[in-house]
Design a protein that fits this description.
The chain is an alpha/beta fold. The protein has a single domain, classed as Alpha-Beta Barrel (TIM Barrel), CATH 3.20.20.190. It is built from ten helices and nine strands. Strands 1-9-8-7-6-5-4-2-3 form a nine-stranded mixed sheet. Helix 5 links the parallel strand 4 and strand 5. Helix 1 packs parallel to helix 4 and helix 5 packs parallel to helix 6. Bound molecules: SN-glycerol-3-phosphate (G3P) and magnesium ion. The site of magnesium ion (MG) has 3 residues, from strand 2.
């Protein structure tokens, strides 16, 4: 397949393992490392604000209890997710989606925006993300690839932002998921690296889709996957993959 212009190494959760996940600090570190694309996760607060966070609770990243979907945006936006990672990042808070998009555009980073709905609000989360993208000034919008494990969220986002390419996220490859991605008009099928083989990658390409793979932190594994033909990898250690690449971004 001809190139689609998307960087091949994508910093996972903004800056990978080198910064608190899903933060603006992570975006800046990814850019400093030479990354040209990042992935981050977006969930809704109780009052419907799309924010960057992966888990449905604050325990792991903020070191305190609380359900994201039960808390107002004002409280979440003031929540320190930097200090629990390392004191040097103290004061780094959960970002708004719009702030993160502006930061990516300023840093020249493309974005794989993963819609990460809390259980039960899949359509609403997709709809809000799609509306935010549609309302976001085109001149300040970075290149965006929408993805989700939730087909309902992806469909809802697509209704509001039909021009934004989408990827269906699954764990292990199976023909039914690929067929579903094709029916949804997705540009890519994003897969776990577990048990991924050349047959699966060829099937994705034969269907006319790209194949992005998570989460790849060892350069030899990245090499193996690129030899299989995968189009990109999400990494917690983009520094290692970039420094092992013979050409920028394994291009
Ligand atoms: O989008 C790839 C990857 O981020 C999916 O898994 O759990 O890290 O969001 P997770
Ligand atoms: Mg993710």
């Amino acid at each position: 397949m001809s190139g689609w212009g998307w960087p091949r190494i994508i910093a996972h959760r903004c800056g990978g393992a080198l910064a608190p996940e899903n933060t603006l600090a992570g975006l800046r570190i990814a850019a400093l490392l030479g990354c040209r694309a990042v992935e981050f996760d977006v969930m809704l607060s109780a009052d419907g604000e799309p924010l960057l966070i992966h888990d449905e609770t604050l325990d792991r990243t903020a070191g305190r209890p609380g359900r994201v979907g039960a808390l107002a945006a004002a409280e979440l936006l003031a929540t320190d997710v930097g200090r629990p990672f390392h004191p040097a990042f103290g004061g780094e808070t959960i970002p708004r989606l719009d702030t993160a998009l502006e930061c990516c555009a300023a840093l020249g980073l493309a974005v794989n925006l993963e819609i990460k709905p809390a259980a039960g609000v899949e359509q609403e989360t997709g709809r809000v993300v799609g509306r935010h993208l549609a309302a976001f000034p085109t001149s300040r919008r970075p290149a965006v690839l929408l993805s989700s494990f939730s087909a309902a969220a992806l469909d809802a986002a697509s209704s509001a932002s039909p021009d934004v390419p989408r990827a269906f996220l699954v764990g292990r490859f199976d023909a039914a998921s690929l067929a579903h991605a094709v029916r949804m008009g997705c540009a890519a099928l994003n897969l776990s690296r577990d048990d991924l083989d050349a047959v699966a990658v060829a099937a994705v390409h034969a269907a006319g889709l790209r194949c992005l793979v998570y989460t790849v932190n060892v350069p030899d594994e990245a090499r193996r996957l690129f030899l299989l033909g995968v189009d990109g990898v999400f990494s917690d250690r983009p520094d290692l993959l970039l420094s092992a690449s013979p050409t920028p971004n394994f291009g």
